TrEMBL record:
Gene Ontology MF term list: serine-type carboxypeptidase activity
Family the UniProt entry places it in: Belongs to the peptidase S13 family.
SUPFAM superfamilies, per database record: beta-lactamase/transpeptidase-like
Pfam family, one: Peptidase_S13
Leader sequence segment: 1-19
Keyword field contains Calcium: no
GO biological process, one term: proteolysis
Source organism of this protein record: Prolixibacter denitrificans
Keywords, comma-separated and alphabetical: Carboxypeptidase, Hydrolase, Protease, Signal
Name recorded for this polypeptide: D-alanyl-D-alanine carboxypeptidase/D-alanyl-D-alanine-endopeptidase (Penicillin-binding protein 4)
Annotated InterPro entries: Beta-lactam/transpept-like, Peptidase_S13
Keyword flag DNA-binding: no
């Protein structure tokens, strides 16, 4: 029965294409597109021909921009590249008394995955190992502080163009030289049985020294999270407003840590104390490096870059993409800054002849609405990866599989493209995009990108509306 339905569907699609000769230069008529702008580009790598293209418009891409960022990082850094986080101390150890007269240091290496929930087993027990090393040195007391050193990156934690509504929430977390636990914290709420009533914050996890939260969230009849956290980087006071479902005993909302280096230092401090080593000072964060000679005790390497990129594209992790962009700047010019990363990324593809008209990039993740790109650019970047031996399989495997994985899990289910098409998705309010590849019924390898801006309806609904159009190329 399923095969019959699919066959009839494809016959219908084929009939529609024949009756609408402009489908190769325009999307099918949809009421949602009346005031919208869109761009698409479809290329057959088997024949070397453009299958379909609209007039190229530079549009807001959302997260499909990660295709460009991750492809560039894969090329310039290499799939086996690893970030490094170092642990040590500054000062002297008095072996007679077992006292370290100085500070414990976590020296960040701009590792985006350090203690990330996406790599739980990789970092499991790292702080405990570091604390045990102190024990092995005979240290019973630290007469100083625990310092999170974030000087591996500059202190511009938020890219230009990110809006106030985003930057306090987990998907808008800042980028630091010492990133920790996805730079995210959780707010645990209790909501009353009636809608429109004030909610109660039960607790915040993890607890950060000096942090406070102004709760203005009320209960709602809606069964989804409609709350937003407002807070700037380094600011220890944040506000949360909006609505959460009524009648919940433990409803969790995720926010962006205001000071991840401080949180990392405080977490290590707690572990060291638990092992019986007294610390007289407190947790601190520094952003310009620490004074004194650093004595290294341990180095913790990140997962391989190919694994970080896989998570970046499957789960659309903005934080990871932003770190990769800055690491591109470090690799090419020795300057791990946002501006240098943007410049070096563009130069890399320019040197390879990729179409870059209308390419305006302001971050690595696509969260900024200031980003703009043509769909031809996205396709040509993917084609360049496809035509390079070794890069293609690793890179394209990082893109979610239709109907099966990541942000593409609920698209193309029950169609011939389920389990066949791989693509990066992008969505934000009034933005929907896809960029990826698949093999069609004739065995041809097709690469495509489509971006729609300023449509009516939800981003998810627009994505579902694009499914039949993409199926016409199967």
């Amino acid at each position: 029965m399923n095969r019959l339905i699919i066959a009839l569907f494809l016959l219908f699609v084929s009939t529609q294409v024949k009756s609408q000769p402009d489908t190769l230069s325009a999307l099918p008529y949809l009421p949602e597109l009346q005031t919208a702008e869109y761009s698409f580009y479809v290329y057959d790598a088997t024949t070397g021909q453009v299958v379909a293209q609209s007039p190229q418009k530079s549009l807001t891409p959302a997260s499909v921009l990660k295709v460009v960022t991750t492809a560039t990082a894969m090329r310039l850094l290499g799939p086996d590249f690893r970030f490094k986080t170092r642990f040590g101390y500054i000062g002297k150890i008095d072996h007679k008394t077992g006292t370290l007269k100085g500070d414990l240091i976590i020296r960040g290496g701009a590792d985006p995955a350090f203690y990330s929930e996406y790599f739980k087993t990789h970092y499991l027990g790292v702080f405990e190992q570091w604390a045990y090393q102190l024990k092995q040195l005979g240290i019973k007391q630290v007469d100083g502080d625990v310092i999170g050193d974030a000087s591996a990156l500059d202190d511009t934690a938020i890219p230009g163009g990110w809006i106030w509504e985003d930057m306090g929430n987990y998907y808008g977390a800042g980028i630091y030289g010492l990133t920790f636990a996805d730079n995210m914290y959780r707010i645990h709420f209790q909501s009353p049985a009636e809608a429109g009533e004030p909610t109660r914050v039960k607790y915040v996890q993890p607890e950060t020294p000096g942090f406070s939260l102004d709760n203005r969230v009320v209960s709602s009849n809606k069964n989804s999270d409609q709350s937003y956290v407002y807070g700037a980087p380094y600011a220890q006071h944040q506000m949360i407003t909006g609505e959460i479902p009524k009648g919940r005993n433990d409803f969790v909302v995720k926010g962006a840590m205001p000071n991840p280096p401080l949180e990392a230092a405080d977490s290590l401090r707690k572990v060291v104390n638990k092992l019986g080593i007294e610390i007289t000072g407190q947790a601190k964060a520094v952003f310009t490096g620490e004074d004194g000679e650093f004595r290294q005790m341990a180095v913790e390497k990140s997962p391989k870059l190919k694994d970080i990129i896989d998570t970046t594209n499957h789960e659309s992790v903005n934080l990871f993409a932003e770190h990769l962009l800055r690491e591109i700047g470090r690799k090419v010019s020795g300057k791990p800054t946002l501006d240098e990363g943007l410049k070096d990324l563009k130069s890399y593809w320019q040197d390879r002849g990729v179409y870059l008209q209308g390419f305006y990039q302001t971050d690595g993740s696509g969260l900024s609405r200031s980003n703009a790109v043509c769909t031809r650019t996205l396709v040509e970047v993917m084609l360049n990866m496809y035509r390079t031996p070794g890069d293609d399989q690793i890179f394209f495997n990082s893109l979610p599989l239709a109907g099966k994985e990541g942000t593409l899990k609920y698209f193309f289910q029950g169609t011939p493209l389920e389990g066949t098409l791989r693509a990066k998705t992008g969505s934000m309010e009034r933005v929907r995009s896809f960029a990826g590849e698949f093999t069609n019924r004739n065995g041809h390898q097709l690469f495509f990108a489509v971006i729609v801006n300023n449509f009516s309806g939800s981003s998810y609904e627009m994505g579902k509306q694009l499914e039949p159009w993409l199926l016409t190329f199967y």
